[in-house]
Amino acid sequence: MLILLSLILLGSLSSAHMDVNIALSQNDIVTEIINLTFTADESYDSVEFTTVVRPLAVQYEGNYSIREENGNYILSFEKRITPGINSLSFNLVYDSIIEGNTKNKVFRARFYPENAETMNISLALPVYYILSDKEPCVVPKPDSIITDGQRIRLIWDLKDQADIVVFYKSQSRFEWYFIPIIVIPLLIIIGVYVFFKKKTKKDISDILSSEETKVIEEIRKGITKQKEIAQKLDFSKSKMSKVIRKLEEKELVEKKPFFKTNILKLSKKIR
């Protein structure tokens, strides 16, 4: 579908500069902010715009009317008498002119400024959308392309009729700009976990005797039988039993009978 936006100035006015700022949204709403600037000594009765699609909404501070004629919609804006003001601005909103599917979309519009000498058109793609891989993806070629990191904006400086076509597409929801949103909180969580983990280990080591520390280190190495640990540390049977009892009281070690010895396991406190 092609929007036809034609400017007709009624009255003694014969020239003007037209600025058209177009914003495309992710839900295919198109907003056009149109501003006309006249020379200070010119006057007019009204301004008419023609479009093949009836706007969803029109925003204008003065009086305006819409009529259908030969399949087109003509918007007539009456002059506002404001001393020192030589411009006219209004907004048009459309909801059914974007072509394509969920990912790949096309915007088409024809601008025909019958009485405007110059015309500047700026078109902003939806947030996080990019130009299509299709060649050419923009017709005619824009005079400049800029971005603020979220939206791409295309700009044309024109002096004649323009049929503008823009092919654009959405990026993957897991593109690079989402990485900080995921990674930063994750790093904070990991940092807090490591901090408290180290603090817990330090607090536990403060309440251990040298013998108890040696036993825990052996269990960490994978030696779990009480008899084997006693033999490696050269602890007597009574001394080993005393150390294990102290560790049980501190809820750091759990034991389970295994034939003539015990299987030792670290508690969740120090794993």
Give the rounded overall mean pLDDT: 80
Helix content: 10-25%
Query: For the record, what CATH class of the largest domain applies?
Result: Mainly Beta
Please state the second-level CATH architecture of the largest domain: Sandwich
Biggest β-sheet, characterized? 9 strands, mixed
Q: How many angstroms separate the termini?
A: 66 Å
Identify the overall geometry.
Answer: rod-shaped
Helices and strands, in N-to-C order? EEEEEEEEEEEEEEEEHHHHEE
In the residues, how many domains can be counted? Answer: 2
Strand content: 35-45%
> In terms of structural class, how would the helical and strand content be classed?
alpha+beta
Q: Do you know the CATH topology of the largest domain?
A: Immunoglobulin-like
Give the number of helices: 4
Q: What value does the Rg take, in angstroms?
A: 38 Å
Number of strands: 18
- Poorly predicted tracts of residues: 7-13
Describe the structure.
The structure is a single chain. The protein has 271 residues and is of the alpha+beta class. It has two domains: 3-171, Immunoglobulin-like (Sandwich), CATH 2.60.40; 178-266, Arc Repressor Mutant, subunit A, CATH 1.10.10. The protein has four helices and 18 strands. It is rod-shaped, with a radius of gyration of 38 Å.
